[in-house]
Amino acid sequence: MLQVLACITQQHDLRLVALAAFICVLATYTAFTLVGRAQEAPPRGRAAWITTAAVATGSGVWATHFIAMLAFEPDLPVSYMVDRTILSIIIAVLISGVGLGIAMSQRLDLRLLGGFVTGAGIGAMHYTGMWAVRLPGVLTYNLGPLSASLIVGTLMGGVATMAGFARRDFRHRVAGALLLTLAICAMHFTGMSAVVIVPDASLPVPEATIAPFWLATAVTAVTILILALGLVGSTVDQHLASRSMREAERLRASEQRFRQLADATFEGIVIHIEGEIVDANLAMCTLLDRPLDQLVGQQIWEVVAPANHELVRERIAAESTETQEIDLCDANGRTIPVEILAQTIPFGTGTARVVAVRDIRERREAEARIRHMAHHDALTGLPNRTLFHDRLEQAVSLAKRNGTTVAVHCLDLDRFKNVNDLMGHAAGDALLQQVARHLNNSVRAHDTVARLSGDEFAIIQIGVTHPDGPAILADRLVELIGQPFDLDEQQVIIGTSIGVALYPGDSESGEELVRAADTALYRAKAAGRGTYRFFEPEMDTRLQERRLLERDLRQALAEGQLEVHYQPLVECNSEALLGFEALVRWRHPERGQVPPSEFIPVAEESGLIIQLGEWVMRTACREAAKWPGDQRIAINLSPVQFRHADLAHKILTIVEQTGLAPERLELEITEGVLIEDTEHTLATLSLLKSAGIRVSLDDFGTGYSSLSYLQRFPFDKIKIDRSFVWEMGRNADSMAIVRSVIALGRSLRITVIAEGVETPEQLALLQSEQCDQVQGFLLGRPVPARDLTQLMTDAETAAAE
Ligand SMILES: Nc1nc2c(ncn2[C@@H]2O[C@H](COP(=O)(O)O[C@H]3[C@@H](O)[C@H](n4cnc5c(=O)[nH]c(N)nc54)O[C@@H]3COP(=O)(O)O)[C@@H](O)[C@H]2O)c(=O)[nH]1
Known about the structure:
With 801 residues, the protein is α/β, with parallel strands linked by helices. The chain has 29 helices and 26 strands.
C-alpha cells in the first residue's frame, strides 16, 4: 500500500491524477446511468444502450488510464505506440460492454460476474496500454503488485456493480460510480507500483511528443464530450421514455375507464372491423351468453340471425347510423330481438364499427300484450269484435281466391240475463267463461270463436267443404249450450239462439255476412230461441222494412204524427172509473194506423223510445192535469228508458212542469226493466216512489221470475196479463193463476188489476174472485183525448145512478 502511495505521490503529476480521477468518476457514473437506461428500455432498444454504455465507459476508463499515464513521470522521455494504444481502447470498450451487459441482470450472481468481467477488462486495457509505452529503458513488472492490481481491480469491480445496480436511483448510481472509480484507480496505481524501469542508453530515445498537459487536455475534452453526449442522450431518452410511459399509463387508465364505463351500461356494445369482432362489453357477452374471448375474433354473422344478414351487410356498406331492429342469436341458438345503432370510429390505424345493442325483448313482450289486449276480450280471452272482423275479411278474401265456403255463426245466449241478475255478475262471468271454453272446443283449430259483447258470440267457420257442415256445427252448438252448466255448486240451464250466413251466397263482404247472420239470429229468437236459422233473402226484406219503419217513425216524431189514446181503468166490483192507461198511437199518412206492437220494438232498438217515451209522458201528464177529477194516469216505461241515468229526474221535471199531482201518476214497467242492471233500476224506482208516484208491474205471470221481483221492490199494483184472463173460463190452470195472483196481492197489500177483459163472463169471474181493478175492451177501448170528456161525464152519470 505504501509502495502504491509513494508511486502516486513521487512518480505522478498529482494535477493530472486528479483530472484522471474526475474523468473516471464521470465515466463510471455515465456507465451506471446508461446501463440503467438499458435495463428500463424495451428488449429491442437494450443493445443500443449497452453499446452506447460500452463506448462511453470504455473510452472514459481508457481516458482515465491515459491521463494517469500522462501524469506518470519516470524521468525518461515516454511515447506511445499508436496501434497498441488503439488496441487498448478497443479492449476497454469491448470488455466494458460485455461486463456491463452481464452486470445489468437481475440475478445477483450475474451482476457480480459482470462486475468481475468489467474489473478484469479494465486490467486488460491497462496492461495493453502499458504495452504501448515506449521509453529508453527496459520496463518490467514486479509480479506481486501486478497480480495484486488485477485481483483488486477485478474484485472491486464486482463490489462496484453490486452496489451500483442494487437500486435504480441516483444514490446507488453514485455509490457504484465511486466504487468503480476506486477499483480502477486501485488497479491502475497498484499496477504502476509494479513497474520497474531500467534505463538503457542503447535503446532509441522516442521522438519529441506533445506535452502531457496538452495531450491530457485533448483526451479529457474528447472524453468529456463522449461522456456528456452519453449522459445527455440518456437523460433526454429517460425523459422521453418516462413521458411515453406516462402516456401509456394514461392510455391504459383511460382504456380501463372506458371498459368500466362500457361494462357498466345496460346496453351491449360490440366493435367489429369489417365483420370481425374485436371487442365487446360485459352486457353484450351476457346478452349473447358467450364469454369475451369466444366473441373476439368471431364474425358478426355468427351472432346475427340469418334472416338479417343481408340487411346488416347493407348497413355496413352504407355506414348507416340509423336505428334498426334486428334479431341476434345467443350461444344456445335462441333469437333475441334487439335495436342497434352503429357508428364508424377511428380504431388503431384504420376504422371500426361500434354497435350499441339494446335488448328489446321486454318491449316486444309489452307490445304483444297490448296488441293482445286490443284484440281480445279480457274476460274470456277470445278474439274481440275488432279481431273478429279482421279475421272475417281475411277468411272471405281467402275463400274468394280458393273458391271455398265461409260460414258465420252469430250466437246469443238465452236467459243469460236471468243468471246474471239472480246469481250475480261473478256467476255471470264464470258462465261466459265456460261457454267460451265450450265453443272453442267445438270448432276446428283454424276457425275463430269471438265474443262480440255481453252474451253475444260469433264463430267464423272456414274451409267448409261439406254442404251440411255449418248446420252440423250450429246443431252441435245449440245442443252443447243447452246442457246444464255448473255454477257455484248450482246447475243452470241457458241455451243459445244462432243465426248462420254463408259466403258465397248470402253476401260478398264480411260486414254484410255478419249483418245477414244477425238477421237470421233475430229469426231464431223469434222462433222461440234454443235453435238456429240460416239466413234467407226474405229475412233481409223484413230487415229493410224495419229500417224504413224506423225512418218513418223518426219523421213521425218530428212531424207530430203520434197521438196518445187513453183506455179506462175501472174498479172491478163497482165498475167505477179510476183512471186511464196512456197508449201511444201512430197514424202514418200512407201506412195508416201502425200498431205499437210493431213500432215500439223498432223504437227500442233504434233508441227513439227515449224521445217517444218523453213525449208520451209529457202529453199524458199535461192532459191528465186538465181533467176535472183526480183520475189516475198509467204510463208505460220501456226497459231502454231505464238505461238512461236521468230518467227519474226527467219524470219528476215533467210532473212538476205539467202540474200533475205525483200521486195520480202510475208507471207501468215490465219484468224486462228489472232484469237489466237491477240496482240502478231499483234506485230509480225508489226515487220516483218517494216522490209519491206509483209503480205497477205489468204483464205479471208471463216472465221468468215475476214473484222474485215482488220481494225486491214494493210495487203498488200488479197487472195480470191478458193471456190468463182470456183463458180463465177455458183453462183451469189459467184460472188458478189468476186466483193465486189476486190472493197474493191481497196478502201483500198490493192492488191487482186484470187486463184484456173482453166479456161479461170474464168480468163476473174476476168480480167473484174479488179482483181490485179491471181493464179491457168490455170496459172501454183506448180513445183519443178529445173523447175523454164525454167518457168521464158518462162515468159520473153511471156512478150517480
Ligand atoms: N213503452 C211504451 N209502450 C207502449 C206505449 N203504448 C203502448 N205500448 C205498449 O205497446 C204494446 C201494445 O199496445 P197497444 O197496441 O196499445 O195495446 C194495448 C191495449 O190496446 C191492449 N188491450 C187493452 N184491453 C184489451 C182487450 O180487452 N183486448 C185486447 N186484445 N187488447 C187489449 O193491451 C195493450 C196494453 O197493454 P199493457 O201495456 O200491458 O197494459 C203494449 O205492450 C203496450 O204496453 C207507450 O206509450 N210506451
